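hey
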């Protein structure tokens, strides 16, 4: 799918597609790494990061990340590609799920500036919601 504006797909749809693809792929990779290596060592994440959380290792957070912020966005991506009307609402769910994930993470383990992943993914969540609510996106999925 070209990223330039086309007659059938406005550029805002392409932006939403890229954001959802980024989230889905990174959620699947990060979630898989954490679920397969619950120690977090493969991602250079010490178990001590989980101090103050209900988790003793990264297995459950990894599974949640893999399914909700990895596989689900990839399903939504397919819906965006096929112009399925449900994909618009699914995009909003992905954006809000990411915002909630980052917010809960910050509440449980604190805000980490290095690397600035919480900031980046928080912004991605807000961008997904903002782009999905653009009039051009809503109009695209109404037809």
């Amino acid at each position: 799918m070209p990223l330039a504006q086309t007659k059938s797909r406005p550029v805002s749809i392409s932006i939403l597609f890229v954001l959802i693809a980024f989230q889905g792929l990174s959620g699947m990779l990060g979630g898989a790494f954490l679920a397969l290596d619950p120690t977090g060592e493969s991602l250079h994440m010490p178990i001590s990061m989980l101090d103050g959380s209900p988790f003793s290792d990264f297995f459950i957070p990894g599974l949640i990340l893999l399914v909700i912020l990895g596989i689900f966005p990839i399903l939504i991506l397919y819906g965006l590609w096929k112009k399925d009307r449900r994909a618009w609402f699914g995009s909003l769910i992905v954006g809000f799920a990411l915002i909630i994930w980052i917010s809960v993470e910050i509440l449980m383990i604190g805000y980490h500036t290095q690397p600035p992943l919480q900031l980046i993914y928080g912004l991605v969540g807000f961008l997904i919601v903002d782009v999905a609510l653009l009039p051009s996106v809503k109009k695209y999925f109404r037809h």
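The chain has one domain: 11-142. Residues 102 and 117 are 9 Å apart (CA to CA).
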